[in-house]
Specification:
Elements: H1 4-13, E1 37-42, H2 44-47, H3 51-62, E2 69-74, H4 80-90, E3 98-102, H5 115-134, E4 138-142, H6 157-180, E5 184-185, H7 187-202, H8 218-231, E6 237-244, E7 250-251, E8 255-259, E9 264-269, H9 295-299, E10 301-307, E11 313-318, E12 321-326, H10 327-332, E13 334-335, H11 336-339, H12 346-370, H13 374-380, H14 385-412, E14 416-425
Helix pairs in contact: 1-5, 1-6, 3-8, 3-12, 4-5, 5-6, 7-8, 12-14
């Protein structure tokens, strides 16, 4: 492992160049392995428990075969140096395999970039990323997000100035990831691109960086989750279901054909598509941002392929919704998750999502109000051995409860029975 001064020299002498589409290849191998433990770390934006919830429900419901364990450790007002100081106590006893980090919003000081800001940000980042690497942990190094161009600082030039700062911090995070051989989550780039595309259509008042300009709503958090999940190297292939009018229906792993005839297939699916909330215009839901972030294209392929259709087009019915498609598009495959946002998985998805929210609320209390105070209690008693043993026993019990809540989430992910009907149209 390179020395910290060596890493800092490489980072601070590097030019600020943006990530390109070619650098984030869709076919990159996933860093995730079955049974791993994933920790989502960051400041108050993480403590909102939205993008962390979306990451966890994707890993749980869309990839149940991996049986992953997730925890969030968001802390309001925190900088990279704050986490560097609490990491050994708050995170490492949980034994993570993969850690996502999202700092920079507070580190930037809410003013124009200067060299000292970059050094104060990247020095603790390099410190804790290096320590995690030494412990055998894979780090998905995330950059900061954006401030909203309308709602932060009254709009005008102030958001441009601070977003320039955040972009520079993001590039430092990118260089750190490259230096250490870890994936980089371009949170800033993804959010900036979505904001630039969405506002001309939905209006400047449509906030991507949140009502206060800093803490995004569900729409902005979906973009953040996209950046982290994409950085994990996931291919997004959740299902391929084939209806053949001259043969048998078939489905990929995680989906079982249990019946049907003609143009209808009945299925039992243990892998869910990611489901969305809200309407097409509100930042208070996730659906409105979909045209401006390639979430469905890159991460949410729930594909229907139709072969040997007798006709130029057909009506597809999934759940209570029907839509028409051309024979050509059906032969290529349509993405049901994108075309049918109201589908048979929405209600069970919401149930699991609610359980994850409850679990992550517990994690905030467990870390912030209990475990984080252990070192100060020990220091106040001169590191009393009996107290230390009691605190470690309590830590173990708290983590066991967190694990039980995670187990309940996975147990609630029941297979969904649903049917798809394809009927030729004249």
């Amino acid at each position: 492992m390179r020395s910290l001064p060596g890493i800092l020299s490489l980072l601070l002498l590097s030019c600020f160049t943006g990530a390109t589409a070619e650098e984030t290849k869709a076919g990159a191998a996933s860093i995730l392995k079955k049974g791993q433990r994933i920790a989502v770390v960051g400041d108050s934006i993480t403590e909102q428990k939205l993008y962390s919830k979306y990451i966890e429900i994707y890993l749980t419901a869309c990839l149940p075969q991996l049986e992953l364990h997730v925890i969030q450790l968001g802390w309001g007002g925190e900088t990279a140096s704050g986490f560097a100081g609490r990491m050994n106590n708050d995170l490492m006893p949980w034994r993570p395999d993969v850690v996502t980090t999202c700092y920079g919003m507070n580190d930037g000081g809410y003013r124009a970039f200067e060299e000292g800001i970059g050094k104060r940000y990247i020095t603790p980042m390099a410190d804790f990323v290096g320590r995690l690497k030494k412990a055998g942990v894979t780090v998905v190094v995330g950059g900061p997000g954006v401030v909203d161009s309308k709602t932060w600082g009254g709009g005008g030039e102030k958001p441009k100035v601070y977003n320039d700062n955040l972009s520079r911090l993001s590039q430092l995070a990118k260089k750190l990831a490259e230096t250490e051989g870890f994936p980089f989550a371009d949170v800033h780039g993804a959010m900036a691109a979505a904001m630039e595309k969405a506002k001309p259509v939905l209006g400047e008042a449509y906030d991507v960086g949140g009502k206060d300009g800093v803490h995004p709503g569900p729409n902005g958090h979906l973009v953040m989750a996209y950046a982290f999940l994409k950085a994990m190297g996931l291919d997004g292939q959740l299902a391929t279901i084939t209806i053949d009018f001259k043969g048998k229906a078939a489905a990929t792993d995680g989906h079982k054909v249990v019946g049907g005839d003609g143009g209808t297939v009945e299925l039992e699916s243990s892998r869910y598509p990611f489901c969305f909330s809200g309407d097409e215009k509100s930042s208070a839901g996730t659906r409105s941002i979909l045209p401006y972030v390639p979430f469905n294209d890159d991460l949410n392929h729930f594909t229907l392929v139709v072969k040997n259709l007798d006709g130029a087009k057909a009506k597809v019915t999934w759940g209570a919704t029907s839509k028409s498609f051309s024979k050509e598009d059906l032969e290529k495959g349509i993405n049901l998750a994108a075309e049918f946002t109201d589908n048979p998985f929405v209600e069970p998805f919401r149930k699991v999502e609610g359980m994850i929210a409850q679990k992550q609320n517990y994690e905030t209390v467990m870390i912030k109000q209990t475990i984080n105070g252990f070192p100060r209690l020990l220091d106040a008693t001169g590191k009393d051995k009996a107290l230390e043993a009691s605190l470690e026993a309590l830590r173990k019990q708290l983590i066991e409860t967190q694990e039980k809540l995670g187990g309940s989430v996975r147990s609630a992910l029941l297979p969904v029975k649903h049917s798809i009907t394809v009927a030729a149209e004249k």
